[in-house]
Amino acid sequence: MWKNYILSPSVEETLELLGNGIGTSRLIAGATDLILEIERGVRSAETIIDVSRIPGQNQITLDHEGMIHLGCLVTHADCIASTLLQQYAYPLVKAASEVGSPQIRNRGTIAGNIITASPANDTITPLMALGAKVRLRSREHERIVSLSDFYLGVRKTVMNADEMLIEIIFPAMQNNQRGTFIKLALRNAQAISIVNIAAIITFDQAEVIQKASITLGAVAPTIIHAAEAEAFLCGKTLDEATIQQASEYIASSAMPISDVRASASYRKFMTQVIGKRALLEIAKNSTHKTIQLPLLRGKSFQPPAIQKVHVFNNPSSTIVTSINGEIKEFRGSHQKSLLRLLREDGWLTGTKEGCAEGECGACTVFLDGMAVMSCMVPAGRAHGAEIITIEGIGSSDRLHPVQEAFIETGAVQCGYCTPGFIMSAVKLLEETDRPQIDTIKQAITGNLCRCTGYYKIIEAIELAATKNGS
Q1: Confidence grade of residue 453 (pLDDT, cut at 50, 70, 90)
Q2: Global pTM value
Q3: DSSP secondary structure string, 221-261?
Q4: Which residues, in sequence order, are CB contacts of 451 under 8 Å at separation 6+?
Q5: Does residue 153 come out as left (phi exceeding 0), alpha (psi in the -120 to 50 range) or beta?
């Protein structure tokens, strides 16, 4: 793990810290990628600098030149909730909605997805199709780099160790453009792409294609354009024959490998399949399908700002936080995750460790009002924050309606995953009094039950909704 943890209050101070510790520091915001990479030895970091508390960096704006700007702290959930992006960057919204789970989307940032530089990362594909650029700053300089020039290979970018990605910039889609994003994975949630595609087509008034931008993920070392298909489509209409030929050109652009998720031949075949699906969606003008708004964010999800740099680097470094309404102090606990802080130092063992990599949801807690996976949050992020665990859900003399419903319906089963499910259900019912069954299913996509008891869990949440509203 890391040795030192720093909470930074501003971009300027972050750049100063990076400049002083070139090569030994890493920036984190959501930390949903970097914590795992550090634990697995993919990346190293003596110091991590947490920028998640910098105010004003989660803005999504449209300037007078028709360019959309995403701040470096814009999360996947922010993208999904943005009416601006729903109107002018639908493929990005669609991709963001298929990343991970509600808890992951609450924390994970678009900038982090870009910097991780995995060719299977979902949001890079539509951003590449949109012609996005990134603004990079260091203490000494600033530069703008197009995504097409940003990547050098798998998990490799042109970023220097002292640089910070400040914002993402791309042109808003116009009225004569239609686009979509399609992801193929082994399951509907919490799954890495086997292959994904983004397509944005520009038409003239006669529905003749003026320009095509088609990008593919998980079929090459970086996100790539299906250049042959893009050239072929120009000057044509999207009839059946054109779509068939274009899908074959799309597949010919793929250069996949075989791995644990799929063989190269299957990826190649499915590239053509989803390429055809994407073009058919665009031809039928059926791309803007309803996307479930982000869940488990609560009614207030802005993290509290901090006023100065906080450095945690020795056994006397103290994390001061509110847990279940009580102020707690922890010394020398900054080199671990929030999950371990709660269990080992706070003796709050209701929060469980199931996978330690953000897959199972057993460690779900509320951090500053929104549900997160505590195994993927650095302990230092708790400083000055408000945390609610399963122990704080009910009261000393009465269970929460969700807890009562789990008992009444027999949804507890072995009990290991139950705290995480209850936390997700409680947050859902804060947001929606009487959620539909599809909304309930979406809300618990980040929680796994090894006893396969989802029917009882859904029944319990439905029952709790009636108790909650009574």
Answers
A1: confident
A2: 0.96
A3: SS-EE-HHHHHHHTT----HHHHHHHHHHHHHH------SS
A4: 413, 414, 417
A5: left
Residue type, 388: I
> What is the maximum alpha-carbon separation in the chain?
71
pLDDT mean over 294-306: 82
Neighbours of 235 (CB within 10 A): 10
- Split at pLDDT 50, 70, 90, the class of 118 is very high
- DSSP bridge partners of 197: 182, 216
- E strands, 51-208, are 60-62, 67-71, 133-137, 142-146, 151-153, 156-157, 164-171, 177-184, 195-203
Tell me the β-bridge partners of 7.
50, 310
Torsion of CA 12, 150, 232, 126, to 10 degrees: -50
Instruction: For residue 214, give Cα distances in angstroms to 130, 132, 161, 335, 422.
Output: 9, 14, 31, 43, 42
Other C-beta atoms lying within 10 Å of the C-beta of residue 302? 10
Instruction: Name the segment(s) of the chain with CATH classification 1.10.150.120.
Output: 401-468
Percent of the chain with pLDDT over 70: 99
The hierarchical CATH code for the domain 310-392 is 3.10.20.30
Domain span(s) for CATH 3.30.465.10 in the chain: 54-283
Tally Cβ neighbours within 10 Å of residue 367.
Answer: 24
Q: What is the average per-residue pLDDT within 353-361?
A: 93
pLDDT band at residue 448 under the 50/70/90 scheme: very high
Q: What is the dihedral of CA 26, 351, 441, 114, to 10 degrees?
A: 0
Residues in CB range of 341: below 8 A, 6 or more apart = 319, 330, 333, 379, 382
**What does pLDDT average to over the chain?**
95
pLDDT reported for residue 469 = 57
Work out the angle between the directed axes of helices 454-468 and 418-431 (0-180°, nearest 10). 40
- Residues facing 142 on adjacent strands: 137
Return residue ranges of the chain for CATH 3.10.20.30. 310-392
- At the topology level of CATH, where does 401-468 sit? DNA polymerase; domain 1 (1.10.150)
Pick the CATH number of 54-283 from 3.30.450.30, 3.30.465.10, 3.40.50.300, 3.30.40.10: 3.30.465.10
